[in-house]
Amino acid sequence: MSKHDDARRAFLVGAAAGAVAGATLVPEAYAKTRNQHEAAMPAAAPHSDMSNGHSTFFNDDHAPTIAAFAERLMPGAPGKPGARDAGVLNYIDLALAGAYSDLQDFYRRGLAALDAYSRKTFNAPFRRLSAAQQDDVITALEQGKATEFTWPSAQAFFNTVRTHTMEGMFADPVYGGNKDFAGWRLVNFPGAQPLFTPEDMQSGKEFTREPITGLQVQAKRARRS
């Protein structure tokens, strides 16, 4: 992992740690429809199998593009899960097919502009660029310097994908990301524990008691009780 990757990870993890600890990192659209979502909650968490190239919303070109973009925003390293490890692509794909369906055209146009700018700059679509080239493209988007974008603007597209990457890393796994609690483990967040003892609440040490649980487990317990 490069120093550039380390700096990016440190920034995003630092920003997420406070949000997760304060229980504020909940996707807005999902929060609005949470009761409806939980009422229809299946027995298993909605992790579709993206490894075989099939997705809910993204086509075979868009899926690897978003996967690569998210990984450059949150790159993985040995012992440090990144966007691919956490299933961020699965999260965004499911969100765009459901609660974020109003952003489908936003993503389609943004991805088309992203590839157009990548081809203009490096003669290849974004998904086929080197990591360094992808970083250059993402930086141009962030700074509003990427041409080929009309609507959405380059900065709007960057900010939206970054927000959704953060959600996919750190929101409850019931929404399709944070696979195996990768994001929560990264920031030492214990998840939804059934009980915190007085000693737990007063301790300044890292909380390590297993298991980490989320909304899916809570729903199963509620159905059994």
Structure description:
With 225 residues, the protein is an all-alpha fold. The protein has one domain. Helix content is 55%, strand content 0%. The chain has helices at residues 3-21, 28-32, 34-39, 62-73, 83-86, 88-97, 104-122, 131-142, 154-170, 182-186, 198-202, 215-224. Helix 6 (88-97) packs across helix 9 (154-170) and helix 8 (131-142) crosses helix 9 (154-170). The longest helix is centred in the N-terminal third of the chain and has 19 residues, at 3-21. The chain starts with a helix and ends with a helix. Mean pLDDT is 78; it is low at 32-47.
Offer a quick outline of the entry.
The protein is built from 12 helices and no strands. With 225 residues, the protein is mainly α.
